[in-house]
Amino acid sequence: MRTILSILILLFSNFLFSQNQSQENTDNYLHKIISDLEKENKVTDNPVIVINEIVYKERSWDTLSFSKFDIESISIIKKDQKDLVEVYGEQSINGVILIEAKPFDQKIKEEYEGDSNVLFIIDGKEISNSKAKKINPDSIAHIQVIKNKDSIIKYTSKEVQGIIKITLKNNP
Question: What is the pLDDT, as a whole number, of residue 46?
């Protein structure tokens, strides 16, 4: 049950968050970083990218999509560092960008905690997001996600983008 609750909250939060992101946040931030570093002459085209200790070479990182909120830290090893060739190969002459990305679960947690447009209803009563997070998943009998505006109006007059309705076990 804990897994189901986590997945539902994750999916619902991700849906709401993706609707609210600005264009600046959805652009591939990795491309912007590389472009800025090229302008500063720290790297040249096609540097080695290392994300959470995974090495991406030959622009294999092009398919990755990052926003500035996905990145925990960035370190730059400037171009023309010949001693890195043994570690990262010839391409490291172009420079190396070391990125520590936030774990997926941390990113979703931050998005979920910051989302005040979700109403939680437990056994017919509205509760705060912080109280909803404290519910023991083992005590949950049923979860319903409501996104349809007409259905939302049946539960509240508040401006919310969705409702997570939870029924606990051992409740009439």
Answer: 85
